[in-house]
Amino acid sequence: MFKNLTGWSRVKSPWICHLNTGGCNGCDIEVLAALMPRFDIERFGILLKATPRHADVLVCTGAITRQMKDRAVRIYEQMPEPKFVIAVGSCACSGGVFWGCYNVLGGIDKAIPVNVYIPGCPPRPDAIIHGVIKLLGALDPRYTELLEELKRKGEIHVSGK
Amino acid sequence: MSAESDIQDKLKEVFGEKISELKTIRERRVFVRIPLPLVKEVISYLKQNLGMTHITTITAIDVGEEIEVLYHFLCRGVALSLRTSVPKANPVIDTITPIIPGAILYEREIQDLLGLKVKGHPDPRRLVLPEGWPEGVYPLRKEYKVKVEES
Amino acid sequence: MSVSIPIGPQHPALKEPTHLMVTLDGERVVDIDMRLGYNHRGIEKGAESRNYIQNIYLTERICGICNVAHTSTFCQGVEELLGLEVPKRGLFIRTLLCELNRIHSHLLWLGVAGHEVGFDTLFMYSWRDREIVMDLIELISGNRVNIGINAIGGVRRDISDDMRPQILQGIGQLEDRSQYYLEVASTEVTFVRRTQGVGKLPKEKAIELCAVGPYARASGVEYDLRKDDPFAAYPYLDFKVITSDRCDVLGTAIVRVLEIMESCKMCRQIIEGLPPGEIKVKAPRKVPPGEVVSKTEAPRGELIHYIRSNGSDRPERLKVRTPTLADIPSVLYSLRGGYIADIPIVFAAIDPCMACMDRVLLLDIDNRKTESMMTWEELREYGMRWYANRKG
Amino acid sequence: MTRIGSMFPEIWRHLFRKRATVLYPFERLNVPKGLRGKPVFDEKKCSLKCKGACAIDCPAKAIVMEKIDEKASRPVFLLDRCAFCGQCAESCPFGSITLSEEFELAQYDRKSLISKQW
Prior knowledge:
The complex is a heterotetramer. Chain B is an alpha/beta fold. Chain B has helices spanning 2-15, 39-50, 104-114; strands spanning 20-26, 29-33, 54-63, 66-75, 78-87, 92-94, 117-119. In chain B, a hairpin with a 2-residue loop joins strand 1 and strand 2. The radius of gyration of chain B is 17 Å and the shape is globular. Chain D is an alpha+beta fold. Chain D has a domain at 35-115: Alpha-Beta Plaits, CATH 3.30.70. Chain D contains 3 helices and 5 strands; from the N terminus they run αβαββαββ. A 3-stranded antiparallel β-sheet of chain D has the order 2-3-5, with no helix packed on it. The N and C termini of chain D lie far apart (68 Å). The mean pLDDT of chain D is 83.
């Protein structure tokens, strides 16, 4: 009984911690815009927490620079165990436009394991919310059904290809 | 074109033939080449007489066996760029921070990215490159090649 | 006896990675040292291995908030190298987006400043109103933040006639919202008491340390590139340069809100006076050898791109100096002597954009003192003693 | 000069205004016509012979040309690298690439972000 209670509370209120590892801060302001009144992801119980210790989900933006690599790993280790990482923006997914720059190592997955990749430069706040729902879908199938149902109604173009 | 020609005449009359390539490529853009030892003297002259206080930035370019240094100033609304070149063998220039304190950052940058030793700099610590960066490797030099690996 | 506290690269007040080593004497900041480099991506070296078209998109991603300023500077520089004559309509559209980007950047700053002072209502309100200008930018350029509107030789998208009423209506809303924010920024007690007299920067210090942008204009330095070195369509617009002689963080807030209203006025002039004709001129791929100093007024101040070309389709050298970098010496000057609680707001006064700045870092100008670390008990007694003799 | 509560009339007025929040998955924001979303490749228009005019100009090197035979090649879009800037649509001499308005592209792994559209 206790197990699905924690599972339920984890899905219902995933607290996020935002980490910018060296991008152009376009995605940071889009993550913030998702927290603002217009998109307001607090209705999913998502709160922006300052310290990684209180957070379940690490929202990473920006390509990994050489300087931030070990700090990102240290912050990832400080997070409590059921932890997930969302890479927001093409720089976080793969280093994007900064290929060949000597101080950029590439995407976030060069330092920490990533669960959901959200491409876009920067992804719109609703694309970020769609990524968060997709992550929640991995924990609780009802969210994936929600996405499937909305896809059938043609509300969202969830693209497989 | 009054400000530009005014600056050019003043420079020509004081420094005469020591400065060269004095040209105005368009309004509010003046380029001039000055020999290395004269850098401090020209800048302090410009500061006292033409009321120049604002430095925009210092650019350093690796042109084969020399490093070209451009000081970009704002003098009476004109973007004045002083150009000198430093031999790559012993790349040393002296600091202009006592004359224009705002230049402290830009000297640190060329020191770090191009290996130009700045003599007399109040704080010559490492700049923007990460701690683990090997000594003596300067990324903005031509011989530094970035290996582009396909991800 | 003082304590040095590292404010690490990941910190709630600073949205972006920078590292502040603050040396404190009790609550008062004695000396501050800033270590950047967390955001340094080596863009200048990267620019040398890309052709001019790819470089537009690379310079655009130097900073996400003031990206249209970067692409305008870069395209303007390359157009000067090529000797291209950009059609007037293209210049007007480029200026319109520069001003819309300034409005969105200043509203963003107003919210972040409110958040760092703990005044979250202002944060929520100003960011909700920022959505109006984000919708306008998205309508014109197709992307909310990274506006890819500039190309070498003009702009990529035109403003069709059915967009005009929407833009004018949006600007009307923005005008009365900024009127309201001016009243809030200058009279609301929660905001004024935390920003009045904080982060003092006298005018001669601002001139000496070469500060730029709204931060310098709040200390009375009359320096605005749109007036002194007009580029794009600014010669055809009439606007006034806003300065205030308050020399503190509240001054920067008032200057920025007034600049929003000025930008709204300019956008209205541009939309009404939009000349007909072409928006773009065909540009060759190879640029003849030459060099250019291209300067524009980014939302945070004077931005310079130095481009040197060697006749091929790749630049030989691209040097970018962004406004935040010029403001750092003056913000560190004004941080000294303040309280630790004021660090976020004073630091936010220059609207730091680490992504912009990370080509250089700075250290305290006068000499450095090394202190030994104190244990927790020593710190507590020291704190009580410090406050006791402060009262006595 | 400073007054307490200059925000109260504003807060009072907001009690009766329409809510500002768009309940995203259930309620969608109408997307403007020219939104730069996922690049869509139309093989009929493409000449397959130009050896990647789009790939040369792509700032993020997000287009890889896949060989069909020794002369012809087709672009493969790596969506995790793509910056959605629309330069490929402009550089393609035959206009075979257009940007759709699809922006919900989150995936669990990078492999499913590689889009081969033929």
